[in-house]
Structure formats: C-alpha cells, structure tokens
Specification:
Chains A, B: Belongs to the ROK (NagC/XylR) family. Chains A, B: InterPro entries: ATPase_NBD, ROK, Tscrpt_reg_IclR_N, WH-like_DNA-bd_sf, WH_DNA-bd_sf. Chains A, B: This is Transcriptional regulator. Two copies of one chain form a homodimer. By secondary structure, chain A is α/β, with parallel strands linked by helices. Chain A folds into three domains: 72 residues, Arc Repressor Mutant, subunit A, CATH 1.10.10; 135 residues, Nucleotidyltransferase, domain 5 (2-Layer Sandwich), CATH 3.30.420.40; 142 residues, Nucleotidyltransferase, domain 5 (2-Layer Sandwich). In chain A, 39% of the residues lie in helices and 17% in strands. A five-stranded mixed beta sheet of chain A has the order 5-4-3-6-7. A five-stranded mixed beta sheet of chain A has the order 10-9-8-11-12, sandwiched between helices. The first copy, chain A, has a two-stranded antiparallel sheet with strand order 1-2. In chain A, a hairpin with a 4-residue loop joins strand 4 and strand 5. Chain A starts with 7 loop residues before the first helix and ends in an 18-residue tail after the last helix. Chains A and B meet through helix 1 and helix 9 of A and helix 1 and helix 9 of B. Chain B binds a DNA duplex (30 and 30 nucleotides) through helix 1 and helix 3.
DNA sequence: ATGAATTAGTAAACTGCTCAGCATTATCCA
DNA sequence: TGGATAATGCTGAGCAGTTTACTAATTCAT
C-alpha cells in the first residue's frame, strides 16, 4: 500500500484517462454526459476532451437531427481505430487470429485448420500466413499493432515458454515470443488457453457479472482457468488451475468414457464420438447416459477440488463439449452437490471455440490500458516492447 | 477499471495519506526524508506534516544530540498510540486477545484457557472478561478501540456467522458480531482462523516476501488459508480453502494416524499423543516414523490439490503441529513432488499459536487503513461501524 | 413570426496546491 | 569568534479545476 505523492500534471493525466474511460465503450457522448460519468465539472471536461481531439484520441461528431429542446450538443467519440491488437489462438487442430480495435470490436477474424501433428516450425509458418492475411485484408502493417497475445495449450511460464507439458508436438522447445518478436515491436504475451477462455467468458461471455470464476475447458482434453477478484489468476509459475494433474482427479481419462461407449459408430473420429454419445444421451439411450454420467463423475472430482479451494461464484462449462452442456450440466450439478460445501452457479459457455482468441484480445487490450495508466497518453502510437524482456532467450 | 476524476482537495488528501504511509513504520523522520519517500517537494511536505501535527496524527521530536554538522532537523513521528485495535482468537481450547496500536505494535496480550465443551454464551463471557482485563491494564475504554477482528474455526459468511460446520459446540447459532456490537461501536469483523493465520504469516511470519501463499493449519484439525496476489482470498461465500471437505482428501482422518500409533502412552491426551509420536519419530522409532509418513501422505493430497489449483510461491506449515515441522516437512516435500507439477517452497511457521490473533490484528489494521483511504483523515478518532450492517440479525 | 424555455459553449475570477529559489537560522568546527 | 553546513521559512510563479455568469443555438408554444 505504498501511496505515492501526486502533483498537478499527474492529476491532469488521471482526469484525462478518466475521460477516455468514460468515452470508450459508450455511444458518442456530450460534454455534460462525460462530466457526469467522470465526476468532473463541465468546463474541465471541455478542455480535456479538446486536447484528446487534438492528440487524436477522440473525434467530434457535429450535431445532426436532434429532437430535444435546447442547443444541440457536440458529441465526442473515442477513436477506437487509433490502434489495434491481435489475439491469436494456436490450437492443436486450428489457428484463430482476431484483429480488434481499441474498443474490443473485432475488425477481422481468420480461422485456419492445422495438422495436429505439425511441428512448431510448420505451426508458426501457418500462424504467420494467417497474420499476414488478416493484416492485408485490414490494410495494416505490423507496426500498426499495439499488442499481441497468443494462447497455447499447457502451462506457460513468465517468458512465454511451455516447459512442463503440452499436447502440441515439439512445443516444449518452441518460443512464440521470440518468433513473433521478429515482426512485432509491440508487447507480446503468451498465455495458457484455459486462462484466456476464462477471461473471455468474463468479458463477453456468460460470466460478465461475476468476479470469482472457475472456467472449465471441457473437450478431449480438460483444463481450468481461474478468475479471482476480477483478475486472471496465473499462479506464481503460471501453472494455476492445473488440478487435472492430481492422480485422484481423473481428467485425463474422463473423456474415454465417451469414446469407448458401446454403440459409437466405428468410423467416428474422437471428437465426433463424444458428440455422438451426447446426442444419443439426449435421445434417451441408456448406455450413452451411463457413459455421460461416468464422464461427469470423473469431471466433478476436479471441479469440486477447485470449488472447495476457491469458493467461486460461478463455474462456467466451456470448451468443445460445451455445445452439449444440456446433458452434462444437470448430472454435474448433482455430483458437485455431493462433494461441495456451497454449490456455485453452473453456467454453459456460449462463446464456443472462439473463447481463447477472444480472451487473447482482451489481454492484449489490458496490456494497452496498463501502458496508458503507467506512461500516460501521448499521441496514439504503437508502444514498444520492453527490451529488457528479450534476454529470455 | 473505473478511474474517477480528481480535484485539488482529493489530491491534498492523497498527499496527506502518502505522508502518513511514509511516516508510519519508520523511525522519526526529517522533512527531507519524508519528501524523498513520498515523492513530494520539501515545502509541500512541510505544510502537510504541520497539519498532521495539529490534527494529532503526528508529533514533533525536538532535536537532541546531533552528530552531523548543520542545523539539526526536527524529526516527526507517527502517533501510533492515537488509536488501537483488538485481535481476538476464539479457539476451541483457548482465547487470545491482542491489543495493538496503529503501527501494529502489541501493547497487551492475554491468553485464557477455555473449556472445549463450553457453550457459546460461556465462551462469549470468557471473551468479555479477557477483553475487559486487557482494556483495564491498558487504561482504555471500548470507545478507544478503532476496529475489532475475531477469529473462529469454520467457514465464516459475510455476516460473521459460521453456518456450515464448526468444532465449537453450538456455534452455528452464535453471532459474534451482534455480541460485540453491544460494547463496540467501531467496525467488527469475524474471520476464519486459517485465513487469519495466513495473513499473519505474510505480515510478521515466515512468508513476508511472498504474494502467493497457501497456509496450512495443521493440528488435530486441518485447514488452509490462501493469500493470492498479496490479498487474503475469502471466497464468494467465505469458504475458500476448505479443500478438506473433499472425500479424496483425508484431512479429517489424517491426524488419527498419529493418535492410533502403537506405543503411545495410554494416558496421553489427543494433542499430547501427536507430540509424543513426533518426538519418537525424531528419535528414530520405526512405528512412529511410519505413522508420521501415513499422516503426511494423507495431508499431501489436499496440499497438492491446493498447489495444483493455485500454483503458489510458498506453502507454510503452521498450526499446533508446526513445532514438529522438522519431522514433517521432508516427507511432505517428497509426497508433494509425486503429485505436483511445480513444487513451491515449503516453510515452517514460527508464529506458533499466536498466528490467528496476530492475523486478526492485521485485518483490523487493514480495516482502519481502508477507512482512511476512503474517508480521508480527519482528527484521529474511533470510526463508527456502518449501521447498514446491523440488519443481519 | 416571435419570444420563452432550455441546453451548450465560453470566459473570467477564484481557490488551493506544488515548486523553485532565496533569505534566515541553528549548529559544528577550526 | 567566525566560517561552513544544512535545515527551515517565506515569497512569487505556475497550473488545474471549480464556480459563476454570460452568450449562443435550438425547440416549442402562442
């Protein structure tokens, strides 16, 4: 709690930022509205917003048709297109690149399938092509990007490496930060996919009202991401949420209950097998229902461990299996009731497989915001990454 | 991230607080030193500290023996005795009351044994007597107390009740806040004992350097308290850390391995039995070592679940058994190595059974600080509790 | 069409804070 | 006793935001 002294210039900077916050994410606003939102007087807001306009952070919209009485007000709009960020999901089967403006509006999205067996070099090459395509479609250069966040499977350490375990072949030696640094001078961040999905769920998903969230990435692999007190919980070594590694938690083998369910067509791929079982369970097939129940039972142990450890407000069921949440949530609730002291709300994700890239976008935007908070807002330009981070070879 | 606008008066308040922060916990300081610490100019600090003195928050120490050349500087000292807080541990076997000044110096400590079977009324009566005695010895009245925090066993909800489970007989219907409110008009807080002990370890204990801590309260009961990103993690319903409730985690039965160890003198009380086993294990007794290993194995599952879920920097082994940490920590480390992805540091608590009351003091001081931050610092007087909280009958 | 009502924009006066610089004061040391 | 040194006290300049009052632009009712 080291409060540090303030002077006038810092105060002006803070008030400037409070205007930006009040401007962003709202429809074009009048000075009076902004004054109310930011808790400042009208004249003060006037000069602040004036200088935001000259700096290029905001723009005026001259009054047009106006149905209220009185002199029509100019409306100011945050220039969301002053900068952009990239959110990238490097998955096992697909690569998803999202280009977003500073307000979080998605300007461009590109999905590309990728060979699950592809080596890191091939995967990076596919990522590069996807990025190129997105930038080209948007008419932008890498220098126009203010921050990049990448999501990968497996726990990620502070340098962006995945050193413990990952289903991506050869990824233990891959260094995404170094690879992207060759093209982007802006801050680059790598984060675990479950954590990013959790962030997305709180941003634009089903848990936007909650501050304490356990997010479950359920699919052929199972993982978890935690948001506590509104902030992403990374863990001291970046490995928070890896409860699946506990032997008593059978997350590794849980999906097998679905794949080995009697009656699954022999031709089905692993992911399709699970979908078939869920559908069959929905239709009342006894064996399928049993398989789902067994899957749920294994799943529940790990969820219960997280719930007991953290006592969250909401558990979000997301990932590839979340489309079948209707047949999973109720049995899961029953299992959790057995284990937990206090049952949190259970919700199904609606973001589907875009959640990871979306969370990456949000984290990149957060990075931009934190720069603004610490460095203040000069004219809008792409920030440069700390060179001190490059020594992480 | 709702930054709100600031004006001059707020700025002065913040600078005033930054002076208080710079003053507190330091030896009497000169204006120049304070200016450096607070990042303000010397004249500014001068008038601020002046008004702190007239308000009663600080006092001057006229220069005495001074070995440096030049005009001797006045030194200012935070008036830590301007207010006091109480930290109270209502345990199964004992009641511990600590009276602390605003700097966290313990002015008075009183420990009283209590019948483990005592009903809430009797326990409250004992608490009242202890408080009376402490206040009398310090020559204070209840009105001189600025905040009270109480530690009890079992998960505590927002109203201070323990509704789920507790080893204190009859406690499910007890309302410590209501009881204390009859005598104290200041803010009253009730918190779980493990959580308070965790706070104490980070404050004055063995984990003062860490921001992510799993604290283990090991004794005849086993519990955990979590500190994440430097803040106490309560959980949405106040039940964070209750991993012991999971069936796969055998925390309830774990201490039984010690009590049923062959060779324990039949006359020993439960607590003494464990101590005897630890001592025997230390002396090389095979059966005792086996019992300790079994105890540790059960303990480790729950710890591993917390470590995997949160990836903390440090695990602190505290509680009644922490005196025997020397025979527990090494086997515990070995067990954790089997379960965990990344092994955190393992440390033994040194605060003994004072940790709960000490954590209560820290939380009471935090309450005082947060009032200062939100309400600003008028003349130092005891704050009054929000009456809006009394409706929780 | 005209004036009242209403709201937005703008200018001036005022408050309160920080800061830079200089004069003053208290102490040590030769 | 007279420098040297370092802290204190004071004054004026500058700055940001608030308040107040006034002017400008628009709608609505008469």
């Amino acid at each position: 709690m080291a409060t540090t002294g303030t002077d006038l210039s810092r105060m002006r900077e803070m008030n400037m930022l409070s205007i930006v916050w009040a401007l962003r994410g709202n429809p074009p606003s009048t000075v009076t509205e902004l004054a109310g939102r930011a808790g400042l007087s009208r004249p003060a807001v006037d000069v602040l917003v004036q200088s935001l306009v000259t700096d290029g952070w905001a723009e005026v919209e001259e009054p047009g048709a106006n149905s209220v009485v009185g002199r029509p007000a100019r409306r100011f709009r945050f220039r969301a297109d002053a900068g952009h960020v990239l959110g990238i999901d490097i998955g096992v089967h697909k690569i998803l690149v999202m280009l977003s403006d500073l307000e979080g509006n998605l300007v461009h999205t590109l999905r590309r399938p990728v060979d699950p067996e592809a080596a890191p070099e091939a995967r990076f090459a596919a990522v590069d092509r996807a990025i190129d395509k997105v930038l080209r479609s948007a008419g932008m250069a890498p220098a126009d990007i203010w921050a990049v966040t990448v999501g990968v499977t497996g726990p990620v350490d502070a340098s962006g490496r995945t050193t413990i375990s990952t289903p991506l072949p050869g990824w233990l030696t891959a260094d995404p930060v170094a690879h992207l640094a060759a093209r982007f001078a802006c801050p680059i961040q790598v984060e675990n996919d479950c954590k990013l999905a959790a962030v997305a769920e709180r941003w634009k998903g089903v848990a936007s009202d909650a501050d304490d969230i356990v997010f479950l990435l359920a699919g052929l692999r199972t993982g978890a991401g935690l948001i506590l007190d509104g902030a992403l919980r990374r863990g001291h070594g970046g490995a928070a949420g890896e409860i699946g590694a506990l032997k008593a938690v059978r997350w590794l083998s849980a999906p097998a209950h679905l794949e080995t369910c009697p009656g699954v067509p022999a031709t089905a791929a692993p992911g399709e097998a699970a979908a078939w079982v869920f559908q069959a369970a929905r239709d009342g097939d006894r064996q399928a229902r049993t398989a789902v129940r067994r899957y749920t039972r294994d799943l529940a142990v790990g969820v219960a461990a997280l719930v007991l450890a953290l006592d969250p407000q909401v558990v979000v069921y997301g990932g590839g299996f979340s489309r079948s949440a209707d047949v999973v949530l109720e049995p899961l609730r029953q299992e959790l009731t057995k284990h937990c002291l206090r049952l949190p709300e259970l919700r199904a994700s609606t973001l589907g497989d875009e959640s990871v890239a979306l969370g990456a976008v949000r984290l990149a935007l957060d990075e931009v915001d934190s720069r603004l908070l610490s460095d203040g807002l000069a004219a809008p330009t792409a920030p440069r990454r700390d060179t001190s981070r490059n020594d992480a070879n």
